[in-house]
Design brief:
- The complex is a heterodimer of chains A (about 180) and B (about 120).
- With about 180 residues, chain A is an all-alpha fold.
- In chain A, about 80% of the residues lie in helices and about 0% in strands.
- Chain A folds into two domains: about 140 residues, Up-down Bundle (Four Helix Bundle (Hemerythrin (Met), subunit A)), CATH 1.20.120; about 30 residues.
- Chain A is built from six helices and no strands.
- In chain A, helix 1 runs antiparallel to helix 2.
- The longest helix of chain A has about 35 residues.
- Chain B has about 120 residues and is mainly alpha-helical.
- Chain B is flat and about 70 Å long.
- Classes of the chains: A mainly alpha (about 180), B mainly alpha (about 120).
- At the A-B interface, helix 1, helix 3, helix 5 and helix 6 of A face helix 1, helix 3 and helix 5 of B.
Chain lengths: ~180, ~120
């Protein structure tokens, strides 16, 4: 009896700690996202984006999805941001502060951002508002692996062909200089 | 779940400690060192000679292919990690499946090589 009560109390404490960490990470993410779109330096924008994506990875850890978190870091923080930085380095964009990025563009961007936020937020609330997600156990990576190598084995091999097609297509496009 | 998150609390404490240590030593250095800048001191260091041009310069387009290859094999690695956790259970089947996967992607590397994208001219 006391053991069960203590366990329940520990679960409650954990829930509080989880919520505290969620809010802290979310605050960092929102601030970084805001700086990402308001900074005048395009390289700084890419680096703020790293912070946002790393925050998303931390949120996945809080949900117990280790594999998704590591994938987030590997693919988004690792590869996508590298492509962004390469894109900035290869184009003749002014890499210092860009004074032209202001004025009516900002107003239009804010309008688009608010509309997009309303649409995606509305769609999420519409679809999932009465769904309760109960996560008591972390999802081990071996579960993901078992799913890939049983149910989705054909899809897994098809992914390799898709990646090959993407790679060859990218090389063909990049060669035309 | 609590056990799982506790291990990541350790990761978080380590990360925070790293940030605090670096910040503390850099801050301490700033407090202790004298600041007497001269034009020669504030110049960028470029192998001991006077720097030419801006610190930001346009990179060669050749690098982009390497970035693309990196992204492709990065995504491949994402699939290899879960496979490695369960390889012993899959045995030969898992080995063959992953060999096919890697072989198909290696064809992309072969294509890049044959097209001379890996050569540095």
């Amino acid at each position: 009896m006391t053991g069960a009560l203590a366990a329940a109390a520990a679960d409650g404490d954990l829930l509080v700690a989880q919520n505290v960490f969620f809010v802290a990470i979310a605050a960092v993410m929102v601030f970084s996202a805001f700086r990402c779109v308001t900074t005048r330096n395009v390289v700084h924008a890419a680096l703020w984006l790293v912070l946002v994506l790393a925050g998303a990875a931390a949120q996945f850890i809080l949900l117990g999805s280790e594999f998704v978190a590591v994938t987030q870091v590997l693919v988004y923080v690792g590869a996508i941001v590298v492509l962004f930085l390469f894109g900035i380095m290869l184009t003749r964009a002014s890499m210092g502060d860009d004074e032209t990025a202001s004025g009516e563009k900002r107003v239009m961007a804010a309008v688009v951002a608010v509309l997009l936020g309303l649409v995606t937020g509305g769609a999420l609330i519409e679809s999932f508002s009465d769904t309760r997600l109960v996560i008591n156990e972390p999802q081990p990576t071996s579960l993901v692996s078992d799913a890939i190598f049983s149910q989705y084995i054909i899809a897994f091999e098809a992914v390799s062909v898709l990646l090959l097609a993407a790679l060859i297509g990218a090389i063909v496009v990049a060669r035309k200089d | 779940m609590s056990e799982f998150l506790r291990t990541y609390l350790t990761v978080g404490i380590f990360g925070a400690l790293g940030v605090v240590l670096v910040g503390a030593f850099l801050g301490l250095g700033r407090l202790l060192r004298p600041s007497r800048p001269t034009p020669a001191k504030t110049e960028n260091y470029e192998s001991g000679v006077d720097p030419i041009g801006d610190g930001w310069s346009q990179a060669n387009i050749r690098y982009y292919v390497f970035a693309l290859l990196f992204v492709m094999f990065d995504v491949e690695a994402v699939f290899i990690f879960p496979w490695a956790t369960r390889l012993e259970a899959y045995g030969m089947f898992g080995l063959v499946e992953m060999a096919i996967f890697i072989f198909i992607l290696l064809l992309g590397l072969l294509y890049a090589w044959r097209k001379g994208m890996l050569r540095w001219v």
